[in-house]
């Protein structure tokens, strides 16, 4: 994420002497996702903690081995969350011990987004019973951010010229002040707690939208 630089092209005295036109410029660039991050794993329950934990560990080991077999590098598989919780039932206002729940979630990094469905199906077929999230991202963010920023500057210039022409005045070609506003990348989330029994789960990454905005001030020529 870049900072928010402010560029002043004229002195404060000049700025106070001349009227100004201030505009918001916006720019967006569409980019195809290049990486997927999938969080999935196993949730097991039971009354004996050691048995529940052992069952969970065996399931997660099977999931990891299955992903390795489809050429997901081991360094692309890491624990995202591991927790042990006590479960209770509430009967007539009383808390009654029910058992234990062990959750172990893995984050899987996929460099080929077209394999996302295969990865999910492989994990599910080897014991995964929860898929908490699927997110897509781009690798060369700076290149797309710069493109969006250039479009935002042009957009601001067009707006300022339109306003000036409508008012019947002229503006300096170079703005007196340019402030870059916070940038964002529109994420593409995919959430699921249950996956249908299909040949390959269809997961479409779509496109990411990189957004840039600038606040630009132009001096009116008198």
From TrEMBL:
UniProt superkingdom: Bacteria
Protein name: Uncharacterized protein
PANTHER family reported in the protein's UniProt record: PERIPLASMIC IMMUNOGENIC PROTEIN, SLR1258 PROTEIN
InterPro entries: 26kDa_periplasmic_antigen (IPR052022), SIMPL/DUF541 (IPR007497)
GO biological process: DNA damage response
């Amino acid at each position: 994420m870049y900072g928010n630089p402010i560029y002043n092209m004229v002195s404060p005295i000049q700025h106070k002497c001349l009227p100004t036109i201030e505009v918001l410029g916006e720019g967006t660039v569409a980019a195809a996702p290049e990486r997927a991050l999938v969080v999935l794993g196993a949730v097991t329950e039971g009354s004996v903690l050691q048995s529940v934990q052992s069952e969970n560990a065996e399931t997660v080991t099977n999931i990891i081995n299955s992903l390795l077999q489809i050429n997901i590098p081991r360094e692309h598989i890491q624990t995202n969350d591991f927790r042990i919780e006590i479960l209770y039932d509430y009967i007539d206002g009383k808390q009654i011990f029910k058992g234990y729940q062990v959750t172990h979630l893995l984050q899987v990094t996929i460099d080929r987004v077209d394999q996302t469905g295969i990865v999910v199906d492989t994990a599910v077929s080897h014991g995964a019973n929860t898929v908490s999230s699927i997110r897509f991202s781009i690798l060369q963010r700076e290149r797309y951010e710069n493109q969006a920023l250039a479009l935002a500057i042009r957009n601001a210039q067009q707006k300022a010229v339109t306003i000036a022409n409508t008012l019947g005045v002229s503006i300096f070609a170079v703005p007196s002040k340019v402030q870059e506003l916070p940038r964002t990348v529109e994420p593409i989330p995919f959430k699921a707690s249950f996956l249908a029994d299909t040949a390959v789960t269809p997961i479409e990454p779509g496109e990411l939208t990189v957004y840039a905005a600038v606040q630009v001030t132009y001096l009116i020529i008198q």
